[in-house]
Design goal:
single chain; mainly beta; seven-stranded antiparallel beta sheet; six-stranded antiparallel beta sheet; 7% helix; DUF1684; DUF1684 domain-containing protein
């Protein structure tokens, strides 16, 4: 474990934490979600939404009249609208007055995710619980690149879904004389990891936390600032489809740093 002597460590962390909470207050972000509705090949109404929705030949169909006030790409839907959301990507936005109806594709399944700026979860949000920042949790690790990038497949918080991650190597680090290794995703210029540890399901969210690592130094060194380990959207809402941590990234040690579980600590409505 490496310590840092930066005189403004706590101040910088506090600003980062405030910025993080402010981002979560986005009126159409994950805290605004009020529903996740899976579509079928049968034209049907979606609870609380105008129009008729279904899936055929990997296309999402919406039928609506101008009075339904559904808009896509700045134009009100009048008749049939066809959408082609990309697998695993942010969804396509259909607007209904102040709401965004996000059409997504996950593991070949299609859904409508409802963002409402008047959502109770957003209105009642008071912040993200977290461990107090501690410079001892700024750790130097060593990155070992794979000869070729590989795909790591994980499950998701929604049964039956999968996530496919571009893995580029492993990071090895030592905490309290215990050496751990986990798989890093992204690129050597922008590494990130999903992990669980001995706090998961106790004080932190059980499925995974995420840590942005950043770029690898010329000598292979990387800085792991676990004070900035964050929750995935699924820690805040039941309407997300987040990945779980890969088996290789389930650490034995307790990472008592970073964000804690809003549900366990009373911070999630």
């Amino acid at each position: 474990m490496t310590t840092t002597t930066a005189p403004h460590f706590e101040t910088e962390w506090a600003q980062w934490h405030r910025d993080r909470e402010e981002a979560l207050r986005d009126p159409l972000g994950f805290l605004s979600l009020t529903g996740l509705h899976w579509l079928t090949d049968s034209p049907d109404r979606v609870p609380g939404l105008p129009g008729t929705w279904w899936v055929t030949d990997h296309k999402v169909f919406i039928t609506a009249q101008p009075a339904d006030r559904l808009e896509f790409d700045g134009t009100r839907i009048a008749g049939v609208q066809i959408l082609l959301p990309a697998e695993g990507a942010p969804g396509l936005h259909v607007r209904h007055e102040g709401r965004v109806l996000e059409v997504i594709r996950r593991t070949g399944r299609y859904a409508v995710r409802v963002h409402d700026p008047a959502a109770a979860n957003l209105r009642e949000f008071t912040g993200v619980p977290a461990y107090s920042p501690d410079p001892r949790w700024v750790v130097t690790g060593r990155f070992e690149a794979f000869e070729e990038a590989r795909t790591v497949t994980t499950g998701a918080v929604v049964d039956g879904l999968e996530h496919h991650h571009r893995a580029v190597g492993v990071i090895e680090f030592t905490v309290n004389s215990v050496t751990e290794r986990f798989v890093a995703f992204g690129t050597p210029d922008d590494l990130r990891v999903l992990f669980t540890d001995a706090t998961s399901g106790v004080t932190t969210y059980p499925a995974a936390r995420a840590l942005t690592v950043g770029a690898v130094e010329d000598d292979g060194a990387v800085v792991l600032d676990f004070n900035r380990a964050v929750n995935l959207p699924c820690a805040f809402t039941d309407y997300a489809t987040c990945p779980i941590a890969p088996e290789q990234n389930r650490l034995r040690i307790a990472i008592e740093a970073g964000e804690q579980d809003p549900a366990l600590l009373g911070g999630r409505s």
